[in-house]
């Protein structure tokens, strides 16, 4: 009963005209960046982070969340019609989705992708509604040791799942922690790594770092190659899947939803891992696995449902523990912090309007996305023809303006340009920026909780293993760190490794 | 990655250079941690986490260097093989010049040439389209930010913008 009352309260917030507008802007931009290859939700969210400053926290966060789950919908359109994933979570959809389009079945592929996404997104929201308050009540008992160990686990899982060698990902995570510690020490107020520059006293801002690493670096990488597009030009008809399509897709949608939701909750996991795992699962369960890769609708329905369910599930650790499980959620955490809010176990009780408003807005956003992605599919297809030689220079200009407006400080523009150049060379040398950004956000919290636990336990390191949750997290982190040393596990890791930056 | 180095200790091995940069950064972080004082385990100081993170950085960088020496790795040149490497270089040069010009020239006088250069350098847009975009987009953005949102953009020595 309480949940229903809370949901009603949430709808009261989400249905305010201004919040509806922000929700629409969010899902529209999300679909847009999902459709356009080369620009992912991370770049778009980092670009729009400063915009959230202008409205209420609810509006800003509703918009940012909309971009994330909206991009999951839009990504499939490009994968199916152009064979280029609009964002990383839609890579798998290319395999069977584009084959279906080539066989003249683009409509059912787009249809099942949108319906699967809708079903999974809605399930994830119901689960979020039921699980989050319970987890939050448990999380109140968490001490600094548990928080420290959970953050270590999150970072290790992300480095484990990042493409390329694990030492490189771990090195990136360490650099992220160091960058996060620049500025005044929160305990002793001593300036650290500021080199006498006043601009660094408050530390480096998240916005210039992320915009540089993901926005500018992405453009630099994209300019290296002329983007070729093989757009399906045939008119898209019959978007509604037929009875056979539904029968074939029901199982994959259900399994993809469950799997995606569970993988979304795990720290370091997310939509990309979920879509790959769902594809592998469907192929393994299929009686005719040879159809996969040649236009099997199950290969579209499963991964598309999984990535949307994962996008919903990823909100749980952020909202209940205050720990972002992936880079996108780290950006959302940035949006909370910009508004002076700290997500965590007390958020739901202290700010029920915000929490339930965001949840309710996601219901509304999912309906908006279904309308945006089915009847209006023609518009997105037209958009795929937008010339990149105009788009990329504009993105650079918008990142410069976005960074400047977030702080009114030219220094941040320099920081963004520097990180853009560093990010480009990092990617060229095979160093992924995702662990760096997550560690950059978690670094100060990680240090704070480590020092607090050491002070509280009077220097007793056993405190981290005597507490069961902390011990479990550290054990799992250790297993993942050792895993790549075993050849069989290393192979498995390479199979699921992901490119978060895409 | 293609073009693996056959000779283990070739200096143009990109993995080796990546590891060495990581090692240097790790060393620097350790030194900064020590400078800030480590404190004790009962009461960790400002440099405590920095120091141990620096050690971890050196360990991971060391592991990258060892694997570069024992397994080889792609050469630096191979990382830019079959791509239009000059394009990102030109964009970087434009951004570097822009960062120096932004404060003295102001937003409008620095962003219009930047946009024009980018439009012509990446995949050349014809002049008749590039010039209007380069002038109208920054001016439009400036107008929206300054007049509607009351955000002060840098106006430079000439006070334009």
Structural class by helix and strand composition of chain A: mainly alpha
The largest sheet of chain B, given as strand count, sense and whether it forms a barrel, is: none
Helix content of chain A: over 70%
**Structural class label of chain B:** mainly alpha
Radius of gyration of chain B: 24 Å
List unreliable stretches of 5+ residues of chain A: none
Q: How does the overall form of chain B come out from the CA principal axes? A: flat
Largest sheet of chain A: 2 strands, antiparallel
Mean pLDDT of chain A: 83
What does this structure look like?
The complex is a heterodimer of chains A (502) and B (161). With 502 residues, chain A is an all-alpha fold. Chain A has one domain (2-496). Chain A contains 23 helices and two strands. The two termini of chain A are 42 Å apart. Chain B has four helices and no strands. Chain B has helices at residues 14-35, 48-71, 86-121, 127-148. Chain B has 161 residues and is mainly α. Chain B folds into two domains: 14-80; 86-148, no CATH class. The longest helix of chain B has 36 residues, at 86-121. In chain B, helix 1 (14-35) packs antiparallel against helix 2.
């Amino acid at each position: 009963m309480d949940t229903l009352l809370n949901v009603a309260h949430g709808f009261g917030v989400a249905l305010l005209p201004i919040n509806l507008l922000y929700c629409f802007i969010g899902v529209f931009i999300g679909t847009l960046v999902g459709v356009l290859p080369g620009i992912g939700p991370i770049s778009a969210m980092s670009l729009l982070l400063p915009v959230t400053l202008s409205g209420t926290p609810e509006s800003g966060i509703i918009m940012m969340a909309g971009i994330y789950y909206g991009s999951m919908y839009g990504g499939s359109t490009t994968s199916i019609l152009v064979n280029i994933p609009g964002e990383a979570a839609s890579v798998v959809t290319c395999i069977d989705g584009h084959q279906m389009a080539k066989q003249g079945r683009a409509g059912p592929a787009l249809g099942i992708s949108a319906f699967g996404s809708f079903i999974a997104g809605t399930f994830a929201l119901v689960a979020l509604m039921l699980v989050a308050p319970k987890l939050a009540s448990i999380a109140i008992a968490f001490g600094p040791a548990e928080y420290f160990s959970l953050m270590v686990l999150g970072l290790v899982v992300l480095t484990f799942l990042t493409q390329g060698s694990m030492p490189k990902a771990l090195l990136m995570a360490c650099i992220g922690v160091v960058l996060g510690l620049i500025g005044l020490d929160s305990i002793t107020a001593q300036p650290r790594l500021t080199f006498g520059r006043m601009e660094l006293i408050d530390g480096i801002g998240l916005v210039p770092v992320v915009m540089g690493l993901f926005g500018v670096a992405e453009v630099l990488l994209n300019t290296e190659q002329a983007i070729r597009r093989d757009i399906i030009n045939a008119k898209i008809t019959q978007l509604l899947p037929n009875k056979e399509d539904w029968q074939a897709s029901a199982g994959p949608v259900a399994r993809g939803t469950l799997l995606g939701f569970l993988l979304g909750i795990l720290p370091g996991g997310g939509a990309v891992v979920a879509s790959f795992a769902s594809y592998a699962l469907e192929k393994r369960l299929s009686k005719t696995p040879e159809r996969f890769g040649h236009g099997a609708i199950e290969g579209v329905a499963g991964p598309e449902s999984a990535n949307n369910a994962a996008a919903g599930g990823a909100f749980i650790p952020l909202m209940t523990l205050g720990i972002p499980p992936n880079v996108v959620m780290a950006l959302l955490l940035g949006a909370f912090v910009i508004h002076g809010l700290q997500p965590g176990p007390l958020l739901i009780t202290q700010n029920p309007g915000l929490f339930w408003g965001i949840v309710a807005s996601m219901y509304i956003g999912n309906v908006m996305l279904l309308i945006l992605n089915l009847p209006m599919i023609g518009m997105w297809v037209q958009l795929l023809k937008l010339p990149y030689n105009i788009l990329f220079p504009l993105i650079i200009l918008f990142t410069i303006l976005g960074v400047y407006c977030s702080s009114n400080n030219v220094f941040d523009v320099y920081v963004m340009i520097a990180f853009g150049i560093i990010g480009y060379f990092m990617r060229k040398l095979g160093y992924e920026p995702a662990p760096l950004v997550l560690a950059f956000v978690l670094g100060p919290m990680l240090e704070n909780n480590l020092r607090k636990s050491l002070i509280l336990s009077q220097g007793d390191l056993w405190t981290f293993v005597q507490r069961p949750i902390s011990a479990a997290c550290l054990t799992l982190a250790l297993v993942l760190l050792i895993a790549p040393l075993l050849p069989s596990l290393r192979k498995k890791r390479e199979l699921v490794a992901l490119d978060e930056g895409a | 990655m293609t073009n693996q180095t056959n000779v283990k200790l070739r200096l143009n091995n990109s993995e080796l250079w990546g590891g060495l940069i990581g090692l240097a950064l790790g060393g620097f972080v350790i030194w900064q941690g020590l400078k800030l004082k480590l404190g004790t385990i009962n009461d960790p100081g400002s440099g405590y986490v920095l120091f141990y993170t620096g050690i971890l950085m050196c360990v991971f960088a060391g592991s990258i260097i060892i694997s570069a020496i024992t397994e080889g790795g792609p050469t630096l040149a191979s990382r830019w093989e079959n791509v239009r490497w000059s394009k990102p270089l030109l964009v970087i040069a434009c951004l570097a010049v822009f960062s120096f010009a932004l404060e003295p020239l102001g937003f409008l006088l620095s962003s219009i040439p930047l946009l024009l250069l980018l439009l012509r350098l990446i995949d050349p847009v014809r002049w008749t389209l590039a010039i209007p975009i380069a002038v109208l987009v920054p001016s439009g953005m400036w107008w929206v930010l300054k007049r509607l949102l009351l955000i002060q953009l840098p106006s430079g020595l000439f006070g334009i913008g």
